[in-house]
């Protein structure tokens, strides 16, 4: 019984080994140029440069067509003329709103100047100082005229400052 087991095991192992592929490790060896026998590398004493690069075989097909004169006469290009718009639309610009800086006794000059220059794009330090002085003298000062959304954004950003800077956005012509 033992020899039968041994024979069956040996048979199974040989069958599994026959149908199983084991990858062989690939080793790369670096050697000097004198030992390389590839035609791509130059050998010592034969001049410089490698072998020529192989060019693929290409097939060139030339097709000639002839046209008769009657065909050329019948083919005429149509010129494209864009149609004129039937109605002229009148474009109305968005109304501008006034961004007003409102004076407060608790305002610190450096804080107001810094925040005005950081938030409002077209205000520099000198203009911010003049706006602060004008607002303290009269009670409010005009920072600029902006479309409604932009003016409201500037006013909201100024009022979110800590300490708060009072500003509001008003319509330029409230009667219209």
Give a count of the beta strands, DSSP E runs of length 2 or more: 3
Query: In percent terms, what proportion of residues is strand?
Result: 5-15%
CATH topology of the domain at 96-171: Ribosomal Protein L30, Chain: A
Give the proportion of residues in helices: 25-40%
CATH architecture of the domain at 96-171: 2-Layer Sandwich
Shape: elongated
Secondary structural class: alpha+beta
> Briefly, what CATH class of the domain at 96-171?
Alpha Beta
Q: Which strand order does the major sheet show?
A: 2-1-3
Give Rg in angstroms: 44 Å
Q: How many strands, which pairing sense, and closed or not: the largest β-sheet?
A: 3 strands, antiparallel
Q: What is the CA-CA span between the terminal residues?
A: 113 Å
- Please, what is the CATH homologous superfamily of the domain at 96-171? Ribosomal protein L7/L12, C-terminal domain/Adaptor protein ClpS
Average pLDDT figure: 79
Poorly predicted regions? none
How many helical elements? 5
GO biological process, one term: proteolysis
Protein name: Adaptor protein ClpS core domain-containing protein
Signal peptide: 1-18
Keywords: Signal
């Amino acid at each position: 019984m033992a020899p039968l087991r041994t024979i069956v095991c040996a048979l199974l192992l040989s069958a599994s080994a026959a149908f199983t592929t084991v990858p062989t490790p690939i080793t790369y060896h670096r050697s000097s140029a004198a030992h390389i026998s590839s035609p791509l590398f130059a050998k010592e004493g034969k001049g410089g440069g490698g072998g020529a690069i192989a060019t693929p075989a290409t097939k060139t097909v030339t097709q000639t067509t002839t046209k008769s004169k009657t065909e050329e006469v019948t083919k005429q290009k149509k010129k494209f003329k864009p149609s004129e718009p039937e109605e002229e639309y009148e474009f109305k610009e968005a109304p501008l709103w006034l961004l007003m800086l409102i004076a407060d006794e608790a305002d610190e000059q450096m804080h107001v100047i810094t925040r005005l220059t950081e938030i409002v794009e077209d205000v520099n330090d000198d203009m911010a100082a003049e706006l602060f002085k004008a607002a303290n003298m009269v009670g409010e000062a005009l920072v600029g005229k902006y479309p409604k959304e932009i003016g409201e954004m500037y006013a909201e950003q100024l009022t979110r400052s800590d300490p708060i800077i009072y500003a509001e956005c008003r319509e330029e012509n409230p009667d219209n």
